[in-house]
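Q: Protein A?
A:
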Amino acid sequence: MDEGDVRATLARRLRTQGRACAEIGSPLYAGILEHAAVDVEAGGVVRDVLDGHEHDPGPSALALRLLGAVHRMVLEGTVPDLARHYPSAGGTDAGDPWPAFLATVTDRFDDVRAGLRRGVQTNEVGRAGALAPAFLHAARTTGAGEVRVLEIGASGGLNLRWDHFGYADVWGDPDSPVQLGDPYDGARPPFDTTVTVAERAGCDPNPIDVTTDDGALTLMSFVWPDQDRRFRDLRGAIGIARRVPAALEQAEAAPWVSERLAQPQPNGRLTIVYHSVVMQYLTEDGRNAFFDAMQTAGGRATGDAPLAWVRFEPTRRTFEVRVTTWPGGDDQLVAEAGAHGRPVRWLASR
């Protein structure tokens, strides 16, 4: 790949993410990424800091890793000139943040380079607005009153505490610091099912310990700084995670799920395996191994030990929430949602 192709590739990736930021409501990041793309095309410092990453796979989200590396410095309080433009750090300056962003990349070049090695870690708490009714749907379908929830690609495991959030003033904890309100576009999901979470656990190649300041900072660095609600939900969920335990293990999806699903469960307890925007980060072999593990476990499921597989994953036009339940292997598209959870269009009748 010659230099012209390298610059074009990097600029294209920045602009693709910039368009997504504009569409999903982050004009701050949309503007920064357009400037960054122009700088790359001109052979500037952003081109240099991204050197060697032109072959990174698209799903590794290079643009978000760049933004996250710089945002982390903002949240640490070490780049006050840029922080003036970032609402996440209390900034109120509505002027152009690009000069300060460029100065940060220039002055902290090595730190930004190091930050690029950190994979994107997000716990989109807003997705619980679609995941929770999907879990209740699975419990209702299988007749279960007690569930264990197992999350792959769990990151910090915030959504494992989904039953400690509040939903549309009709389900969950009315005093929770995470109130997801009514994100439903059209019919509201039926919140008429009562469940008890008996076990919550997750795995991730690099799990985040949100009980530490460093872990919390990592998650916050990947939230877009001009999206106040996401920050509020994240901070509330971190507080919940610090008092509601969930086991997180460093492990790959397929072997971890296989081991967990081989463990006998009390009669009637439903096991829910779920993930949200995780498949793109697995290798093809990893995805196939995970799919095989789910199908194998599904074949063993019984009415006394049912299994559900809930996934929130992107398609070309939206994000789909699908639920498969065993025994039987019934598969249903239950909802469509935005990338960060809102809005949710509920599709399942019951």
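Q: Protein B?
A:
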Amino acid sequence: MTESILRKKSYLFAVEIVLLVKKLQQEKKEYILTKQIIRSGTSIGANIREAEFAQSDADFVHKMSISLKEANETIYWLDLLKDTDYLGKEEYKKQVHNAKELLRMLISTINTMKKKNKK
């Protein structure tokens, strides 16, 4: 059940990131930072999808760990966009909240799988 929630939330987050990038490119003419955040922000869900067909538990953990790293990187880009005045406070808070929620869910999923494999 957690994976389906994680799958859904990561997809919705990717949609939000795409819309954010579109807005920043149209309104602020920002293209360099947005290339980075669209890559990391959409990669979270893509790796979660890859994990669904992992060849082993270790492969699953590896794909989820990549998603975790991408979520953390996305928070970095959100911080940078906020601190350089490309992103407003409310939009920043919303997106960081969503990214941190994904981080927590990914950590929980990874830890659960690791505990399962130790038994």
